[in-house]
Specification:
Number of strands: 15
Distance between the termini: 109 Å
Largest sheet: 6 strands, mixed, barrel
Oligomer: single chain
Low-confidence stretches: 1-22, 24-42
Strand order of the largest sheet: 1-5-2-4-3-6
Strand content: 25-35%
């Protein structure tokens, strides 16, 4: 006769406890396995706040003090409050109650912000529904990828570079204005002087510096936007008479093979010593440079960085898009030296000894 072994109640409870422990252990193990993936996903995407601030840095446009927040979730004192509120007040951001600063940034939103901040079109023609048409003109992303997340800051830098390159390669038609407007008021309240190096543009902000090149003879002039216009279809810029004469003879009247480069605001773009340089000094709250990365630097000058703490220069991205990986550690008492080889925007990815990183941008300009 077969014997049936009936476990005692203590043994039964023990088995149940063992099963519960196993289930709990399995859940903990699953959580441990999933947790690194979650952290990586957060680290490998760009937040809306960080993405916006990077795009804002790239246009060299100043902000004024903001007294009140434009978004409920970006209060005064928050990182980026001034820039985000300033941009929202000028309708460069969507008119919502919340900004969602720590949410991941989508490629479509980044593209819209880039296009708006480059003033490629009137603001009311740069809503989300206009994105497909805008991307046909400026294909910085594939429209099918508009809801994908920006993977890292390098991907965002690539988008910025693509748009800058497309804008740089555009050919424009320009004209000039002179005696009929001399001494009259401009759209920004200045008095128009046909002998000054100024220009009228329909969308660029007041005091934006532009480098204008006549591609037919390779002559250049740098002008400051201080008026609105021109109001002739297909024409991009009206120069003062003095600026126009730097490019061609007055009798030409109109130039149809011109490149326009937006350099940034006159207060932020160095004119080779005429303005006091402004520096970006902080990697983190506790790790600062003695001097820092200047917003602008004259071609031929050196960049020098040193700190009382260890820091590492990980990569340098050149204006032509080439990224050089350095991984150069700088100890206290040592100095990182860099000499730019070309004009344009340089991007430095610099970190601390504790794994924190920040991206710095520097615009290199040639002195006349």
């Amino acid at each position: 006769m077969a014997h049936v072994v009936i476990p005692s109640i203590d043994r039964y409870v023990g088995l149940q406890q063992d099963a519960s422990v196993m289930r709990f252990t399995a859940l903990c193990s699953l959580a441990i396995l999933l947790a690194p993936g979650i952290v990586v996903a957060q680290q490998d995407t760009v937040t809306r706040r960080d993405g916006f601030l990077r795009i804002w840095e790239s246009i060299y446009r100043p902000t004024t003090v903001q007294l009140y927040p434009e978004f409920d979730d970006v209060p005064k004192g928050d990182r980026g409050f001034t820039e985000i509120s300033y941009a929202a007040e000028r309708k460069l951001l969507d008119n919502d109650q919340f900004f969602h600063p720590e949410d991941a940034l989508t490629k479509g939103t980044a593209a819209l912000w880039l296009l708006r901040m480059r003033n490629v079109e009137e603001l009311d023609a740069m809503e989300e529904e206009h994105l497909p048409e805008l991307l046909e003109r400026y294909p910085i992303i594939d429209i099918a990828d508009r809801y994908e997340l920006v993977g890292d800051m390098q991907e965002l830098n690539d988008m910025i570079l693509r748009l800058n390159t497309l804008l740089y390669e555009e050919v424009h038609e320009i004209s000039f204005y002179a005696e009929n407007f001399h001494g009259k008021g401009t759209a920004f309240g200045e008095t128009f002087d046909m002998n000054a190096m100024t220009a009228a543009h329909l969308r660029f902000p007041h005091n934006t510096l532009l480098r204008v090149t006549n591609l037919d003879n390779d002559t250049q002039v740098t002008v400051r936007v201080n008026d609105r216009g021109p109001y002739v279809h297909g024409r991009s810029l009206d120069l003062s008479l003095a600026a126009f004469l730097q490019l061609t003879e007055r009798s030409a009247g109109v130039l149809r093979n011109v490149r326009i480069e937006r350099l940034g605001d006159v207060s932020l773009v160095s004119r080779c010593g005429s303005d006091a340089p402004r520096f970006q000094r902080r990697i983190t709250r506790d790790v600062r440079f003695h001097r820092g990365v200047p917003h602008t630097l004259a071609l031929g000058d050196d960049l020098g960085l040193d700190s009382t703490r260890f820091f590492v220069v990980r990569t340098v991205t050149y204006p032509d898009g080439n990224t050089v990986r350095l991984e150069r550690w700088i100890a206290p008492g040592m100095r990182f030296q860099f000499t730019p080889s070309m004009e344009g925007e340089y991007t430095f990815r610099i970190g601390t000894g504790f794994g924190r990183e920040r991206t710095f941008t520097m615009h290199v300009v040639a002195c006349n």
